[in-house]
Amino acid sequence: MTGWRIFVHSVRMVVDNLGTALRLSLVLYLVQVAAQVQAYMGPVDPAQLPDDMGPGLTQLVLTLLAAVASLWIAVGWHRFVLTGEPPAGLLPRWHGSAILSYLWRSIKIGLLIVLALMVAGLVVTLVALALGPQVAAVFGFGLVGLGSFLFFRMGLVLPAAALGLPLSVREAWRATKRDDGAVITLAFLVIGGSLLIELPAMIDGGSATTVSLIYGVVVNWFATMIGISILTSLYGHFIEGRPID
After folding, report:
1. Which among 130, 182, 207, 209 could bridge 2 via Cys, Cβ 3.0 to 4.6 Å?
2. Is residue 59 part of a domain?
3. Is residue 243 part of a domain?
């Protein structure tokens, strides 16, 4: 199955290039982790901050830095895999226009997915009223799969943005239509992977411990890199015609 092969290929992409992946993403990922560590350590004491730096502003700054770091990692990894561009020391090379284009296309895709899920969510609500919450829970689980499916169908525009190339959502949708079964498989794999990631927290009752924090940081890094790699593999396969080993 193509979807499974794309998933395995994406995992191998990270594992086989682990050193480069760490060099390219580790410093920026630690910026993203800062917000998690702050939440774990407890709320910031306003008395310890400068007069013009309240807890809300601190969180806003961390959130903005995390967003920039996330975009920077994604663009850097796409470019490394698709063009062989190495990181510049401990950071990916900075491509400001590509990062801005990546942000804009991400917002566009996000709005389209939210709109689709709102319509689907209305159907789930009607089902819940008619058949009960148990049946609706099954449909709710399907919303996660629908969101993943739509993201992978349209998300090919993101690696294109990282390369500075034009690609519309319609063109991405048309390209993946040739094998939408692969995208469906990937959507189910993402759901399964998400459940596995959250399983320890569910078993532990979601308690915030140092071990759970470290576990989340490590696992989420792999999930982030594999997720970016899946988009890269989809782009390489459906747009550039690269074979999937």
Report:
1. 182
2. yes
3. no
Domain that holds residue 224: 2-238
Q: Tokens representing 82?
A: 């698709």
pLDDT tens figures, 92-148:
999 999 999 999 999 999 999 999 988 887 877 776 676 666 666 666 667 777 888
Nearest 5°: phi and psi at 2?
Answer: -65, -40
Q: Please tell me the pTM assigned to this model.
A: 0.82
- The encoded tokens of residue 56 equal 């809300």
The whole-angstrom separation of Cα 77 and Cα 70 is 11
Structure tokens at 162: 């990282």
Ramachandran bin of 91, using left for φ above 0, alpha for ψ from -120 to 50, beta for the remaining angles: beta
Tracing tokens 């502003």 back to the chain, one arrives at 57
Is 180 a domain residue?
yes
Length, in residues, of the chain: 245
Distance between CA atoms of 103 and 69, rounded to whole angstroms?
12
| Contact between 87 and 20 (Cβ < 8 Å) | yes
Q: How far is CA 152 from CA 24, 104, 183, in A?
A: 23, 17, 6
DSSP state of 88: B
* Coil, helix or strand at residue 91: strand
